[in-house]
Amino acid sequence: MRQKWIAVPMLMICLLCACVSKETDSVQAPVDFRSALLAHRGCGFTLEARADSGEGLWVLTLECELDQRGSGTVTVLAPDSIAGITVALEADSEQLRYQDLALGLDLLPGTELAPAAAPGRIVRAWAQDWIASAGPEGETQLVCYEDPGLEIRTWFDPAGTPLRAELLRNGQSCFAGEIRNFEWKAGTNNEITQENLG
Q: What is the Cα–Cα distance from 49 to 70, expressed in whole angstroms?
């Protein structure tokens, strides 16, 4: 009888250790992704996005080349009315700039963030925001990054490539997009370049 009572606590300890290990593994993936982003100093991707301006819904296709601070260029591919505009997004800025004018889109509700500036905010979250939670969701891993009043969710495939991202303000989604053609910036880090050269 005494052996049974010893076995139960041991089983509980093993289960707790397994849970802690799974949680550690879940958090390790976004930490590894962050390390790679900082090492490459940026990334490029296409974003098929839907943005709720509060006054209406924008459907945007954005070509993004951004550094780890979220600065770089965003080219609007769609809608046709503003397609072809390439704008500069500055680090820690909430607005896209085209020469001296802000791109003419309404701001996302409850923010000072223009919809086309959202990719920069997403990349900044990947690089520096608090990782509030991480865990499996179907065949993907959902990672939630938090900043006061703003939550950025990103779904990663098993290889650690981002597939989707969403911005929520006070729990309400205001921007969401499918990430296509994700790639790291090439040749921006000496160590990476040396490794690539063999």
A: 17
- Summarize pLDDT for 153-182 with one digit per residue, the tens: 999 999 999 999 999 998 999 999 999 999
Q: What range does the domain containing 92 cover?
A: 28-180
Query: Residue 130 falls within a domain, yes or no?
Result: yes
39-78 pLDDT per residue, tens: 999 999 999 999 876 677 889 999 999 999 999 999 999 9
Query: How far is it, in rounded angstroms, from Cα 176 to Cα 183?
Result: 19
**Cα separations in angstroms, 109 against 4, 50, 106, 177:** 59, 13, 9, 17
End-to-end, the C-alpha distance of the chain in Å comes to 63
CATH code of the domain covering residue 57: 2.50.20
Q: Is residue 196 part of a domain?
A: no
Q: Tokens 């900043």 identify what position?
A: 147
For residue 24, give every residue at least 6 positions away whose Cβ sits within 8 Å of its Cβ, in sequence order, or none. none
Residue 65 maps to a domain: yes
Number of structural domains, the chain?
A: 1
Q: How many CB atoms lie within 10 A of CB 59?
A: 11
